[in-house]
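Chain X:
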Amino acid sequence: MFTNPMPPPEYLQAYYSSTYRYFYKGTRTPKLKHIYRAGLRALERIERLSNYIPPGAQVFDIGAGGGEFLCLLNKYGYGARGIEPSKSYVDFSRQQYGIKVEPGYVETFDMPDSSVDAVTMHHVLEHVADPRDVLTRIKAWLKPLGHVILEVPNLESRYHSPGRRFHFAHLQNFHRAGLEQLALTCGFNVVDCRLNPSTDHINIVLNNESSEPTENNYYNYYEKAKNALERHTWLSHNLSIRPYSRLWANILRPLRERRELTRLGSPQSGNDVLEALYRKTNT
């Protein structure tokens, strides 16, 4: 008899509401270095989003984390709100930034149909038990010509060593062709799909112009993933420059971050960090 390998929903919700952030970050609320990193990523994401969604649009962010992306979206003139499963991160982002974020899960969140211009999900889809169900739910939330921008790790990436390419909390794994096909099976149109130049993460932009789901040949995508994994061996990884350049970057990062925070005026709070980053990019 087939047994569902996924943990039960109540277990996943309890884990993400109280445990995951601490396991991943080693803290129950983000430190200044985490806020600085998240702020830089948020500025990159806003630049990409602005190519498709103008200021004033309603943006809903799933997996809002510490709230940095929502906070900066508001500064750039968007109507931004979101959900985050971690209760401590929700409390932090509300108190620190005064943003509209609620504790919740995409699988059960009650959102009116045709109510937002865009939905964003950065490193969330790999954590859900049923990505197709999640994307189908999100499609119903979008207004006509609405967009989804999401990012996930790339199974074909050689950024991680072969022994570290599967994350302990990831329920799903994606490669570019498979993610594009998943979007098509949910009735989306793929507007743009690209790889992050430093990590090879997949960043994809979808809209809901297409309404008829397409068929999927899952076997072809399984074979593609299998071949990519087999080609990425310990030998090929260690003979490449990637592990050594990454090690050097990790050594330098704390020093660089301390220097940059000093240049921003030695901010004492998360709000100070984001305000300084916003001013720096708009002067």
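Chain Y:
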Amino acid sequence: MLTSDFDFHLPEQLIAQQPVAARDASRLLVLHRDENRLEHRVFPDLLDYLNPGDVLVLNNSRVIPARLRAVNPKTGGALEIFLLEENSPNDWWAMMRPAKRAPIGSHFSLVNLRGERNAISVKVIDTNDEGHRRVNFSGEGDISEVLDEFGEVPLPPYIKRQAGNSAVEDHERYQTVYAQERGSVAAPTAGLHFTDELLEKVRARGLEICHVTLHVGLGTFAPVKTERVEEHVMHHERFHVTSDVAEKINAAKSAGRRVVAVGTTSVRVLETMARANDGKIVAGTGRTNIFIYPPFRFQIVDVLVTNFHLPRSTLLMLVSAFAAPGETRGREMILAAYAEAVRQHCRFFSYGDAMLIT
């Protein structure tokens, strides 16, 4: 299968730059897989498609303010530090721009949100094949404890903000209401549509709500650059599943009840576990680079809540696989649904509208 098979035209004006006024005010495009039929609804109508006994699985990873500013104390040269993954306290992998200003051994001073230099210093100690820098922070305890003072919301590149001026509402809205475990550098965006009130209605309908954790990495935005899909190598992301959640999901599957995954990140956790454990979910912590594309047979997830994804992206390939499990025709189904979404002026990507595949 070719990467170009997953391309589609998207008018730039349909890329959502701001969240809608209320989280659950977004639209919901429903794809009925068996009938290949579409419905246009609004997000609170999700309740109409949920059954008592279903298990709703949410990714509770919390986005950290991962975009930092720094200066070279000798030259005054400015650069951006985008935190990617913590190795241990004050030891991180990061992207630094411009990279040519950050060779191994270089030192920098952090700048807070007011543009003031601080006693916290940054030293580059290593690089990897992707050009990322391993950096050590020193001068004020654990950097993760003061990120709110120094870091900006790590919005994806297609959401345009002036440098150093992320909107105040981004700090709240680029975060799910149930976010708990700090570690993501991008939001699990399908969950952005949920409110506390809507989740209470989900519980009142007789569903169980479970949380898994997958810390979303910057690779979630990485385009597939290989000509053939299967040649692409996925990035690794850290995940965690508790024993209580594992028991609830396994019990649901054994009883023939549905598992409703909110977001591709939740899917990746569940299907990673299933492949490693004969179709079961087990408690544990790990890293996954599972790449889901057509044809793929899903063992756990029965229903998917997701957003509209970028052309040629691994996320678009995952939802194409889910539209027709074990077959390749899901690509045509999803691209047809996206074409309809474009015709109806749906909003795309992180702050955009939602899709339910059932």
